[in-house]
Amino acid sequence: MSTCFVAVALGGALLAAGPGVPPTPSAPPTPGAPLGTVRQQVRRAKADLASHASLPEYHESPFQPSEIVERIHALQSEQAWAELCRELGALPDDELELFEDTVRRPEHARHLPCAGKLLARIDAYWKASERKLASAHPIAAAPTLPNRPVAVDVSKDAIFTDGHVADDEIVLTFDDGPHPTRTPRVLQILAAAHVKAMFFEIGRNASAHPDVARGVLAAGHTVGSHTFSHPNMARIDERHAESEVESGDASVSLALGFRPGDLPFFRFPYGAKTPLEQGFVSRRGNTTVFWNMDSQDWKIRDPHKLFMSVLSELDRARHGIILFHDIHEQTVIVLPHVLAELQARHMKTVVFVAGGAASTPSPSPAWER
What we know:
The chain has 369 residues and is of the alpha/beta class. The protein folds into 2 domains: 3-132, no CATH class; 142-367, Alpha-Beta Barrel (TIM Barrel). It has helices at residues 3-8, 38-51, 55-59, 65-75, 78-89, 93-96, 100-104, 106-109, 115-136, 182-192, 203-208, 210-218, 238-256, 275-283, 303-317, 329-344; strands at residues 147-152, 159-160, 169-175, 198-201, 222-225, 265-266, 287-289, 293-294, 320-325, 348-354. The longest helix is centred in the middle third of the chain and has 22 residues, at 115-136. It is globular.
């Protein structure tokens, strides 16, 4: 019996080999255990997201929407795609939206006859969510905030957590971009508020979207590197980690038109590192930027709940470096409200910039446009 037939027979058979009952939503699958039918996996996606306390745990889950759809893709079965369409169509909107990015991927959308309808539903869901947040927390006028650049000597300031900023100052940071559509919208929101921020870009994303990466830089924001592929650095060997740092820096630098090695700021994925890795980054002349406030925007998908989470972090820390991701729709929706809240609290924004000739990036003639 063929793999494809096994995968789609009887209304959706198991997508992983092995006997037994699919695990409950709160428990991780055991090695060799089945992941469940298409229906079971699709309906598990939201519960699985909620069950993980940290982003690295979630990224290792086989029940991320991207992992589920990639397994369907690997089957090369139109029956499996049709089954996925049925199951996605049956989801409520707040579960369907989890699949937005993977449905939008051209290599998936061309196999999904339902893609247009699903994406229309998702767009309507986000618009309704935006209206709900605006109704609960209306913005009287577009916020504008004081913004102060702080020059950093990367030869002396090796590691920042709260950035040593004043009690009423916030450093806005965005990880994991550039995203082809959401990063430009984040830039528009920041520009309207006269705010500069820091963007820590993944090398492969900068290579895929160099025009967006250059747009971040052209808007006056600080761009740092965030490795090439976003691994958990604490779980890989030293040689692999050094390669991730170097290739990530090179990819982002080349996208921006800089010489590799010129980017002064670096952020470890998940904030995970070993002492050896930190030493390597510091010896390269990079200032490592962590954070003392986490928006949790990777997990909190509802914009209103995300906004309340950010308020809680502001109440707790009152100053420092806050972590967002410019790859999430809920982050784009909530950002104007966060800026308005900062203005209402009479807070200021800070952006770190490279200070000193040795740490200031300069375009390479070889890559000038």
